Amino acid sequence: MTLDSPGARRVLYALAGTVAVLVVGAILHPGFASWSSLRGMLVVASFTGFVAAGQMLVVLVGGIDLSIPWVLNGAAIVLTTASLGQTSRAPVAILLALGVGALVGLGNGLGVAWLGVPAVVMTLGMNGVMQGLTLGLSKGLTCASCGSYAPSPLRSLFSGALPAQLFLWVGVGLFMTVLLTLTTFGRRVYAVGVNPTAAFLSGVGVRGVTVALYTLSGVFAALAGIALVAYGGQPSLGLGDPYLFESIAAVVVGGVSILGGRGHYLGVIAGSLTLVAVTTFLAAQRVPEYGRLVIYGLVILAILFAYGREKAHD
């Protein structure tokens, strides 16, 4: 990705949007861009960044993952119910939670790649299955009622002065960058996204790539669930609901083509930061909830319109 490429320009646009919101916020509200405020925004953005990593991978091949909300929620509840708040059970509980995400993602990938089920239908159906299973596991109770907590070492790591999720997000960023830009698999991902038929004729295992990407999406959704419950201490039913829209918004604001074949995770990071900065700024302005949703949507549409004009001129 060169500096004069459309992808690089879109990353810069998303970063510029973040900086612009921070500057305006700092002018109108002293302290808006202070370290404590920035730290809070980075923490919130990291959760979006985790789920958006998986969403980006499937979008790169022209797909979409609508099962994210309840994969995230299910993984969070599996973590707390399997660990029972005990430190000794934390490693196994984390692996189980990640395994749930991988299993659901694998199911999505097999349905899309091998059974030919449209991604929207397959992942939406799987989201419903996970919602039912999660409600059954928790017996429909909130975490306060069922008494399940994340192990205390996890809570300490994710809510300290330098929260672990920020370092984890850096690790995710490095992983995504290396995977997509420095490996043969990454080149195959872009090839499938640009033209799956041509990729297949070139010897790329299109089905295998698709299954792998949906599996990774499930793992990233589960990772977000683990991070959220470690940060908050307890999961709750509906914990993942906001992250479906946010994951898609971060991907498109970050310059990833919704039709597949183009995008970089650096843009998704910038998109996540932009969305959180806008939300924080509107909250500081005491804009009512309905107003925030309207402005939030308009900002996303404005960015997409700018990308559309850029594409028309390329």
UniProtKB/TrEMBL annotation:
Protein name per the record: ABC transporter permease
Record keywords, A-Z: Cell membrane, Membrane, Transmembrane, Transmembrane helix
One Pfam family this sequence matches: BPD_transp_2
InterPro entries in UniProt: ABC_transp_permease (IPR001851)
Protein's UniProt keywords contain Transferase: no
Keyword Membrane found: yes
Entries under PANTHER family matching the protein: ABC TRANSPORTER PERMEASE PROTEIN YPHD-RELATED-RELATED
Compartmental location: Cell membrane
Signal peptide: none
Lineage: Bacteria, Bacillati, Actinomycetota, Actinomycetes, Micromonosporales
Residues that span the membrane, as ranges: 12-29, 41-61, 67-85, 92-117, 166-186, 198-231, 243-260, 265-284, 290-308
Membrane topology, from the record: Multi-pass membrane protein
Species: Asanoa iriomotensis
